[in-house]
Write a structure and sequence with these properties.
The protein has helices at 14-21, 56-61, 68-79, 114-131, 140-148, 154-157, 192-197, 201-219; strands at residues 40-41, 47-51, 87-91, 98-100, 107-109, 135-139, 162-163, 185-189. By secondary structure, it is of the alpha/beta class. Strands 1-3-2-6-8-7 form a six-stranded mixed β-sheet, with helices on both faces. A two-stranded antiparallel sheet has the order 4-5. β4 and β5 (107-109) form a beta hairpin. The protein has one domain (5-219): Uracil-DNA glycosylase-like domain (Uracil-DNA Glycosylase, subunit E). Bound molecules: uracil. Residues 51-55, 58, 64-65, 67, 69-70, 91, 193 line the site of uracil (URA).
């Protein structure tokens, strides 16, 4: 089965995990992506933002949220009164999944499968444990499912404050249960890339900002 667990370092902090993640072959997505895009930001962040997977720019640059969706997200954070320098940014899946457009070279984002999301979970768990954020913003359905389980629905749950279960059961493979974030909250919201693509972009953007304000209040 797809699983990142064998690639995790037995000990060490964020830097050790980032180095190890660069060599992850826990699922086939490493084959076509340029590099692993591990999380980045403040190691003492009280706020963590979790997206779906790196996009084209992130895959080239090796950093999360540096493309158009990242620009929109950073603007929304400022508008909600949140300081991006004190946040940690990451994704549910650490490799870019894409198809090549029929006649061009443009790489078109493809959503990761549930298997790929669960294969990558150990990296997200490690980030939660090592950072220990008080509030985790789940950006879109993939991040929501990764953090809260497959029954998560962004339309139903967005804009609410969800307490993370105190004890998450370990995986079938016996992977250690994450303890961090155990007392934290998840705030699900829209994915910034979905805001960019939407017809009613202004309204969606306002929705993203208002959900981020909820995260800001939870941190205050
Ligand atoms: N979209 C994501 O979900 N993550 C990124 O890092 C960039 C775009």
């Amino acid at each position: 089965p797809y699983d990142a667990t064998p690639y995790l370092p037995p000990r060490g902090g964020l830097a050790a995990h980032r180095r190890a993640a660069a060599g992850c072959r826990g699922c086939p997505l490493f084959e076509n992506a340029s590099q692993t895009v591990f999380g980045a930001g403040s190691p003492s962040a009280r706020l963590m933002l979790v997206g779906e997977q790196p996009g084209d720019q992130e895959d080239r640059q090796g950093e999360p949220f540096v493309g158009p969706a990242g620009g929109l997200l950073r603007r929304a954070l400022r508008e909600a009164g949140l300081d991006e320098a004190q946040a940690y940014f990451t994704n549910a899946v650490k490799h870019f999944k894409f198809t090549i457009a029929p006649r061009g070279k443009r790489r078109i984002h493809k959503p990761p499968s549930l298997r790929e999301v669960s294969a990558c979970r150990p990296w997200l768990n490690a980030e939660l444990r090592l950072i220990g954020p008080e509030v985790v913003v789940a950006l879109g359905a993939t991040a929501g499912k990764a953090l809260l389980g497959p029954s998560f629905r962004v339309t139903k749950d967005r804009g609410t404050l969800i307490r993370l279960p105190g004890e998450r059961v370990s995986g079938r493979d016996g992977a250690p249960a994450p303890t961090a974030g155990a007392e934290g909250f998840v705030v699900p919201t829209l994915h910034p890339a979905a805001v960019l693509r939407a017809e009613d972009r202004e309204a969606r953007y306002a929705g993203l900002v208002s959900d981020l304000r909820l995260a800001a209040r939870a941190l205050a």
